[in-house]
Automatic annotation (TrEMBL):
Residue ranges constituting the TTF-type domain according to the UniProt record: 165-250
Location of region: Disordered: 1-23
Superkingdom, natural source: Eukaryota
Cited InterPro entries: Znf_TTF
Protein name in the entry: TTF-type domain-containing protein
Length: 384
């Protein structure tokens, strides 16, 4: 588009001097409109023309456009010494990023809410240092999330993290989960969840600070940390907080109470069965008869005593009612459980006798041989 006659233009040399300043100003102003826009999912691409025009069918107060990157170009129309005026000549449209421009009548608080709509991932250890107290409380209540990986990347010493470190083998071969230990694959570091969030002042060790990445000595470092006083204090505080935050009226809490009630019932049942076994063994009375069912003839002394207790004891009565009404299959009144309880009592008595022998300075031994009903010699060993 040619200029009208009589209009003056800057020279080419002046334009060349002016161009860096214009580009610098444009770079400074880049992103200045971001506080007035918010990214929304693309639902209708609209009818965009090839030169960046926008369909007129949109609302006047919320015009949907695509993110625009403006570049300043100097176009010379070839008028000799008189060059054309500087202008924005081209607009590049970056497809796939739709924004919603709000007019000036909107509440400024809405813009603040929109700017704060993108929240950091509270489960990422990289964001733990910048969390506010409210987010820390939520994170402590929910607990850490672990990445489902078995091994981390190799370091410069050809060592790497292993998921085996997330659990601990106790002295009785029981496997105990280190719930507090979290590994981040992006950082290739391990963190202590409770110490990282609840530490007061400086805590010694990388697990509570920048993260542990020494995979050569990580086993020893983890053991040192989990036995430290600061870690135990933070673990206790975390468990106490999580326990206080749990609500008693939840379904899980009701189910947990029912489970504990059932556990207590079976403890009482087994205690009474054990006392019956102890009584019969002490008095050298036969346990079983020709029948092994309750309330039938010739079912033996053991089941007879169970029937007797059911007349007076509410725990055994409830247990017998469950058996007779087919509510349970494992009633723990059969011959196998009787033999198992007899063996357990024998082991406990033998262990106690050995302890007394080791503690005593002097003791006497009596040996006697007596034939049993099958005419086999039985030799009892009596220690006094």
């Amino acid at each position: 588009m040619h200029s009208s006659s009589g209009r003056k233009y800057d020279s080419g040399a002046f334009k060349c001097k002016k161009k860096p300043k214009l580009e610098e100003d444009a770079q400074i102003q880049r992103g200045a409109l971001d506080k007035y826009v918010v990214i929304v999912p693309q639902t209708n691409s609209g009818n965009h023309t090839s030169d960046g025009n926008i369909d007129d069918g949109h609302d006047d107060n919320a015009v949907e456009v695509e993110v625009v990157t403006a570049e300043i170009h100097e176009v010379d129309h070839g008028h000799g010494d008189n060059a054309q005026e500087d202008e924005v000549a081209a607009t590049e449209i970056d497809e796939g990023n739709d924004v919603n421009i709000l007019d000036e009548d909107h509440d400024p608080n809405i813009l603040d809410d929109m700017n704060n709509s993108v929240q950091p991932d509270i489960f990422d250890p990289r964001n733990w240092d910048g969390l506010d107290p409210k987010k820390i409380d939520i994170l402590l209540q929910k607990g850490p999330k672990r990445e489902d990986i078995e091994y981390g990347p190799y370091d410069k010493f050809s060592r790497r993290f292993s998921a085996l470190s997330l659990s601990r083998i106790l002295s009785n071969e029981e496997k105990f989960d280190r719930e507090w230990l979290v590994y981040n694959n992006g950082l290739d570091k391990a963190f202590c969840f409770c110490c990282k969030l609840l530490k007061r002042g400086h805590v010694i060790g990388q697990l509570a600070n920048e993260g542990l990445s020494d995979w050569i000595h990580h086993g020893a470092r983890i053991k040192e940390h989990e036995s430290s006083r600061e870690h135990i204090t933070n673990m206790t505080a975390w468990y106490d907080f999580r326990l206080r935050m749990q609500k008693n009226e939840t379904i899980d809490k009701v189910a947990q109470r029912e489970l504990e009630k059932e556990k207590e019932h079976w403890r009482k049942v087994l205690l009474r069965i054990l006392l019956i076994v102890k009584f019969l063994a002490e008095h050298n009375i036969a346990f079983r008869g020709s029948n092994s069912k309750l309330y039938q003839e010739s079912n033996g002394n053991f089941l007879g005593l169970v029937e007797l207790l059911a007349e007076f004891d509410p725990v055994i009565k409830e247990h017998v009612d469950r058996i007779t009404n087919d509510k349970i299959l494992d009633h723990y009144l059969g011959p196998s459980i009787q033999n198992e309880l007899i063996n357990m009592l024998a082991i406990a008595i033998r262990s106690r006798i050995i302890e007394k022998v080791k503690e005593a300075k002097y003791f006497s031994v009596i040996l006697d041989c007596t034939p049993d009903a099958s005419h086999q010699e039985q030799m009892p060993l009596i220690i006094m």
